[in-house]
Amino acid sequence: MSDIIQLLPDHVANQIAAGEVVQRPASVVKELIENSIDAGATSIKLLLKDAGKTLIQVIDDGKGMSVTDARLSFERHATSKIKDAQDLFNLNTKGFRGEALASIAAIAHVELKTKQENEELGSQIKIEGSKVVSQETVSTAKGTSIAVKNLFYNIPARRNFLKSDTIETRHIVDEFQRVALAHPDISFLLHHNNNEVYHLKKSNLRKRIVAVFGAKMNEKLVPISEQTDIITVNGFVAKPEFAKKKRGEQFFFVNNRFIKSSYLNHAVVNAFEGLLEHGSHPSYFLYLEVPPNSIDINIHPTKTEIKFDNEKALYAILRATVKHSLGQYNVAPILDFDRDATLDTPYNYNKKNGSSSVPPITVDPTFNPFKTETDYKPETSSTPKSGSNTYQSNFKKGTGNWEALYTNIETTPSIQQEQLFETQQETETGKTFQIQKKYLLSSIKSGVVLINQSLAHQRVLYEEFLENITIKEASSQQLLFPVSISFSSADIEMIYTIKSDLESAGFMFDQFTKESVIIGGIPTSITESKITLVLEQLLDDIKLEVPDASFSHFDVMAKSFAKSLAIKTGTVLSVKEQENLVNDLFSCKEPNTSPFGKATFKTLTLNEIDSIFNK
User: Fold this and answer.
1) How many other C-beta atoms are found inside a 10 Å radius of the C-beta of residue 489?
2) Quick check: 283 and 265 in contact, CB under 8 A?
3) 290 domain residue, yes or no
C-alpha cells in the first residue's frame, strides 16, 4: 500500500494558519498595531478604506527592520520576540508566535516599507498570496509602513462571510480602542475613508479615556489604586448611576494587554453589590500589573484569555479595592468609625446651672373609659390640642361605647388595606384583563389568550416602522430647537455611516462635530425625550450584531426602534389601550412572534384549562 501522508505546501499551510489568525479586518489591525508597539513606536497611524476590506495601512516611527529581517518577517514562525520555550512564561511583548505577517500575506496584497534609524535607505517588499513580487531599496522615513490591500481576495468564500462595513468598522474600532487605552504614552491616529475618527495625543490614563469616549466620561470616573506583593491595580470605575443595561465599556488590562475574564468581572460586579439596578452593568477601566511568570498568555489564539496562578487572591484583592474606592469617594455608603466630638455630651454638663428637669405628669383619677361621652366630663379644664392621639380623639367622637372602635375597623378598611387590595386584584376591562402589569388576558370563543404586552407592542411597532421606512415616505417633524447629543468619536462615525438610512426613517441632521450630533428633525412616531434612548439602543444593536442585518440597516433600525419605544413591563394600560393593543397585534402580518423571535401570545383552549383541574 502506498504512503498517503504528505507535507502541505507552504502557501497552503499559510492559508490554513490565516484561518486562525485572520478572522476579519480587525484581526489584521490588531496584529499590525501590536507589532508597531513592540517596535518601540511613539506615534502610530491607522488608515482604512471600506472598513479594511480595501485597505488597512499602519504607519509607525519604531525602530524599523534591516533588509534581511524585512524579508524574513513574512516566513512562518519567524519572530524576534522569543528564542526558546521558556520565554513563553516571561513575556513582555504583544505578538510572539511569528504567524501574523505570514498569514496576512497569504490572503492579501501586502506592501512593506521599513528603515532603521542609522540607515540612509530602507527596503520595500511586495507580496501577493505568499509570493514575493518584488523587493527593492527605497527612500522612506524611519520606522515601518505596512499596507494590506484586498483582504481575502483569493478566498472569496471567507470574504462573503464578512459583515457590513458598519459592523466591520465597529470591530476595528474596538481593537483600536483596546490598544490605545493600554498605551496612553503613544499617540494614535485613525482615519477611515479619509475621515479622521480619532486623533489621540500622548497623555495620561484619565485623559486618554476621556479622549476615546468623549468629554462626558470625565464626570463618571472614580479612581482605583492598590498595590500588594502579588498585584498592582490602577484605573477607574464609573459611578453606579452611569451603569448601562448592556456590557459596554468594560476593560481589563494585564501587563498592558487587553484580556477578557468573567471571573474578574464578577469580582468588580460584586463590589457594586446593592448599588446597581437589576440587569445593569458597571463600566470600568482596570489595569493590573502581575509578575509575567505568574500568568499563561498562550492558552487562546487571540491571546485575550489568560490563566492566573492565584485567581482567588486576585479576586479578593480586586473586589476589596473597588469597594474601598467607591466608599472613599462617597459613591457607596460606608461605616464611619471616627467619632464627631461635637455630638458628644460634655462630662461636666451636669455641673452647669439650668440643667434639664423631668417634665411633670398629670393624671385624671376620675377618668372612666366605659362611660359614654355624655356621662363623662373631665374635671380638668384642659382640652386636647391639635395633633393629639388619633385613637383618643376618635373615641371621644364615638357613638357612645367602646365596641364602636372595633365595629368601625370591621366595616371600613384602612387606607393601607384598600391600597393592598387594589394592587392584588385584576382590573376588569370587559373581555380583557391586565395581569401583574405585564400580561393581557383576553377571552375568546375557544378559551383564553394570554398576551405579553411588551413583546406584542414590539411586533406592532416593528411592522409600522418597517412599512414607513421601506414603503411609505417617512414623515418627519421639525424641532423648534435643534437637539445636540454627545457621543464618542467612534459612535459619531457609525451614525454618519448610516446617516442616509436614518434620514429615510425621518431623522434630520443639522451638523456633525467630533463629539456631538445636532438633530433638527425626528420621525413623528418618536418624541423628543426619546431621541437619545433610541439612538443609543440602535448603536448597541449594531455593535453587538443583534439582530443581524438580513438585507439592510432598515431591518436593524426598525427592530431597534421597536425595542426602545415599546411599552415596558410594569406599565398600567387603560381599557382603551388594552383593546387597541390586542386589535393592533392581530392586524399584524406576523402576530405570533416579536421581531426577535419570541412568542407574543399563548392560547389556552377550554379543554386545556379543564385538564389543569381534572388531574
Assistant:
1) 22
2) no
3) yes
Q: Which domain does 67 fall in, by range?
A: 10-200
Q: Examine the domain organization and report whether 395 and 467 are in the same domain.
A: no
Rounded Cα distance, 394 and 396, in Å: 6
The answer to whether 454 and 600 have CB atoms below 8 angstroms apart is no
216 and 290 within one domain = yes
The grid cell for 442 is: 383576553
Quick one: CA torsion of 454, 455, 457, 460, rounded to 10 degrees? 170
45 contacts: CB under 8 Å, gap ≥ 6 = 57, 58, 59, 60, 188, 189, 190, 191
Q: What is the mean pLDDT of each run of 10 residues along the chain (615 residues)?
A: 71 63 88 91 96 95 90 73 50 58 90 93 92 92 94 87 86 93 96 92 94 89 92 93 81 91 91 83 93 72 73 91 86 53 48 59 73 54 45 45 47 45 42 87 85 93 83 78 87 85 86 87 85 85 57 74 88 89 90 90 87 81
Together in a domain, 187 and 221: no
Sequence-ordered list of residues with C-beta below 8 angstroms from that of 294, at least 6 positions apart, any chain: 230, 308, 309, 310
Cell of 372: 359614654
Q: How far is CA 586 from the centre of its chain?
A: 34
